[in-house]
Amino acid sequence: MLKVLFFARVREQLDCATLDLPWQPAFSELGALQEHLCQKGAHWRDVLSQENIIRAVNHCVVDSSCVLTDGDEVAFYPPVTGG
Amino acid sequence: MVTRSHFIPRLPVVDQVENKRFQVSVQQADFDVSALQRALLQDNYEEGAVASFTGYVRASNARRDLHTLELEHYPGMTENSIRDILAQAAGRWPLLNAGVVHRVGALRPGEQIVWVGVASAHREAAFGACEFVMDYLKTRAPFWKRELGKDGAFWVDARESDAERAQRWLKIDE
Prior knowledge:
heterodimer; A: alpha+beta; 3 helices; B: alpha+beta; 4-stranded mixed sheet; 8 strands; globular; disordered N terminus
């Protein structure tokens, strides 16, 4: 299982906070998972293709080449604005 | 072979000693700056300097009718990110103790949002580390602000000036 989380503006745009995806070997790179999510529809592709979107795996910011394994927690979120 | 288990972060693992030196709290409740500052001091009087920063919700903003500021975070990652930032600060300056408190939820203008406190033997380390932690917190830790006013709710955009402030610490390293 992969747990996929969306936060803030990205969560609102997708109207989705969490997805639990059964693990597939095809998800072995973050880029492949992202493409799988984009295939949910044009809106998903638009939102997840935003240039400044940040990806994190198991609480670490990563890029598309990050290797995923079963049980990972993946998050997509916009630039942060705390403080 | 090293295996990764679920929810184990890839961040440098901060050990138990560091967890004791670095107090991190993400909370809805308000906080008492005086009590937080006292908690940075140890019984052996090694601290010669404490520098701290307190951030407040501004009443005047791009949207002048702001009545509420909502803060969202990523439970778990936010706390880990802040601990990592404190560990990075401790790698740059000889810190004795440090703490970060960041509020989430709905806040009104004038309320406290964030506190950073750093204790060291001397002021240079305390001033530098406090500023570094705030600069990194604003650009690395997953928090998001949303402004609520009579015109509706608007997510706050990240500011280039905040990114530049954090970037300059990398330039100092060069």
